[in-house]
Structure formats: structure tokens, C-alpha cells
Design a protein that fits this description.
The protein is of the alpha/beta class. The protein contains ten helices and six strands.
Amino acid sequence: MFKKMNLWNKSKTNLTINERVSRILEQPIPKHVAIIMDGNGRWAKRRALPRVAGHHEGMKTVKKITTLANRLNIETLTLYAFSTENWKRPKHEVDYLMGLPEEFLGSFLPELIAENVKVSMIGDNSRLPAKTKKAVEKAIEQTANNTGLNLNFALNYGGRSEIVEAVKKISTDVKNGEISVDHIDHECISHYLMTHALPDPDLLIRTSGELRISNFMLWQIAYTELWFTDVLWPDFSDKHLIDAVEAFQKRTRRYGGLNDKESKK
């Protein structure tokens, strides 16, 4: 029995990416996957390279993971590209990061269009440089009618700021008599968030070994499954995304309740 199990485990680990994808597609897929892309700077430091080299390599990973996510029939992939706190970084690094959307979308947009991928964004775009804003708006406009994966960039985004803005809008609407205080519930608050058109994430992935949320989608991840890895973002591969989705498929989501077996005990 033990030898047979060992053989089975060995054969499973030796499956190709295509075979693992086929197996995944036979089970429920997370509709919305969110990723905190962390570790670009450390990746560069370990190679005695400037931090911006890590960000450039991380951009290549975005392309690979977007392609696979679309293949896995994931409906929305939200990538934490730049937080409201990232403005505190050195100016040359911020300037480089603000140039990445233009570079990424400039080279990858034709492929996104061909693959039926839709581009969207959450975050405050009022502070973005004109070239960054223009590149994102162009991608959103040119992919607006696509019906495949929704590639959603969280750019100049912070979970606390999002909630504060939602509270302000709700307060204004209450003051103007558009809604009543009794109307405010979970669904109402969700409606005022930047993600109101999206389902809450089913799976949140964070790379680089850090075990924290870093002000990302604080309201939306109340019942999201979390998956952490020590792998730095530039090294995050198709295999790692598949590992995360397979782990998700093995979990039982209770949303604070009991599953069928537990409820019968």
C-alpha cells in the first residue's frame, strides 16, 4: 500500500504543466485571484543589481501569469502594482515604476487584445503621471469589449483610503437624502467601493515570504483564501500559480458556517 501511494505521488509530481492545467479545469476555479507581487527589490539585490532591474523582471512575470490565468478561465486577476504608500520610495524608483505601465501595455497590449483580455484599474488615478494615466486609459478603452480575463491593476491603491472614500460618499448621499442610514449594510458599502463591479477575491496570493496583507483590499478579503510563498515575484512561475490554485481547490470554504458533514454531526 505504501509503495503504491509513493508511486502515485511521484507520478503526480511528474505531471507536465499542461496535464496539471487539465486537472485543474475539471474542478471549480477561483473566479477572482488577487496577487500581492512582492520581492522585486530583493531579487535584484541578491544579484547585485539595482532595484529597478527587479521591477523590470517582475513585469515579465506579469505577462506569463496573465497568460496562464486566462488559460485557466480565471475571470478576474487583480495585481497590486503600486500602493498609496509606495510614493515614499526613492524618486528614481517611483519614476521607474510609473513608467512600467506604459512599457508593459505598449508591448503586451496587442497580445492582450488577441487573447480577449480586458484591462481595468482600481485606485486613485489623479496623482498618476500623465503618461502613466494615458497608457492605462488607452488599454482600458481598447479592451473594453473583450470578454475573457479581466486584468485588473491596483495602481495608487490603498484599502484604508478606499474605505475612507466610500464612507465620505455614503455620508454625502445620506446628507442629500439619496439613501437613508437604515439602508447602509454590507451590500451598500460594497457598492461604494472601487471594486463594486467585481466579485470579492476567492484567492489571495502573496510572494516573497511576507505574511501580511499590506493594506490590500481590506474589505473584500473577509473570506478570501490566502496562499503565501517564499518565492520572489520575478521567480514566480506557471508552476507556482498552479500550486496555489490546486491548494485552493483542496480547501472547504465555510464563510463562517459549517460544511455538510459538520452540520450533520
